[in-house]
Design goal:
Helix content: 10-25%
Shape: elongated
Largest sheet: 4 strands, antiparallel
Number of domains: 2
Number of helices: 2
Radius of gyration: 27 Å
Order of helices and strands: HEEEEEEEEEEEEEEEEEEEH
Strand order of the largest sheet: 8-7-14-17
Structural class: alpha+beta
Strand content: 25-35%
Number of strands: 19
Length: 261
């Protein structure tokens, strides 16, 4: 019974972590470029009361062993990098990556972070920055005195100066890819940081080296599906309730055993 209590307790703890991940997904259903995650589990160590193949008293071997598990543990969160929907905005600096890849963002300390959120703006120096004011890398700065600007599918930023009709290229947006994007570490603020598990970034213009093209005038929404998350929530709740019933059953059995006279 004591083993049942501890195993059921690990199950309740695991489902609590699962619900926490689901709640975070639902909370970010409207976050641009957000990628949903799910918790992965593994069974824990086993008590091997009798090994398989043990020799019996009659000189034969047991075809199966006798082992009882210790419960379950959460071992990681797997982030789903499938595409979200593309929502038209009409803003030139709202950029979506039609395919895989990440934008590069430079923090004030010089560290390079990565994002799928292409909701960019211009700061006071006419630099292209994210919502926190961090510039994209490599930096793109628009000149003074232009009438309009545009961003092509391959990331070329061009402006049409006053009195001219032909565009002039002023910058190039680069896209990076990783061999294992699920290994990126979430930093908050729609930003990711590379890790030893993600590998080093491969940098190139949009449309090259397996990364997607840019869509100007669109933002990529979260890839969270509310119906799927609600189904996962119900499943986690029922699993939590089942483990709690195991705790109650083990408690009843212990109570019965202690009341034997």
């Amino acid at each position: 019974m004591f083993r049942a209590l501890s195993s059921a307790a690990t199950g309740m703890q695991a489902q609590e972590k699962r619900v926490g991940s689901i709640a975070n997904n639902i909370a970010n259903v409207n976050t641009a470029g957000y990628r949903k995650s799910r918790v992965e589990f593994q069974d824990m160590l086993y008590d091997k009361l009798s090994p398989a193949g043990a020799v019996t008293g009659e000189g034969t071997q047991k075809p199966t062993g006798f082992e009882i598990g210790q419960g379950v543990k959460a071992v990681g969160t797997l982030r789903d990098f499938s595409l979200g929907e593309f929502r038209p905005t009409g803003r030139v600096l709202d950029l979506a990556i039609e395919g895989s890849g990440f934008f590069q963002i430079q923090r004030p300390d010089g560290e390079i972070l990565y994002t799928r959120d292409g909701s960019f703006k211009l700061d006071a120096q006419k630099r292209v920055v994210n919502s926190d004011g961090f510039p994209i890398e490599p930096a793109v700065t628009l000149p003074d005195g232009f009438d309009q600007f545009m961003v092509s599918k391959d990331g070329r930023v061009s402006v049409v100066n006053k009195g001219q009709t032909e565009p002039t290229e002023v910058g190039q947006i680069q896209i990076v890819s990783f061999s294992n994007p699920s290994g990126l570490e979430a930093m908050g603020g729609n930003l990711f940081q590379k890790s030893p598990a993600s590998g080093e970034p491969t940098i190139g213009p949009p449309g090259s080296q397996g990364v997607g093209f840019l869509l100007s005038g669109f933002t990529e929404t979260s890839n969270v599906q509310m119906v799927e998350e609600m189904v996962e929530m119900i499943s986690a709740q029922r699993a939590y309730e089942s483990n709690s019933r195991v705790v109650k059953a083990a408690d009843d059995m212990l109570r019965t055993a202690t009341q034997i006279k």
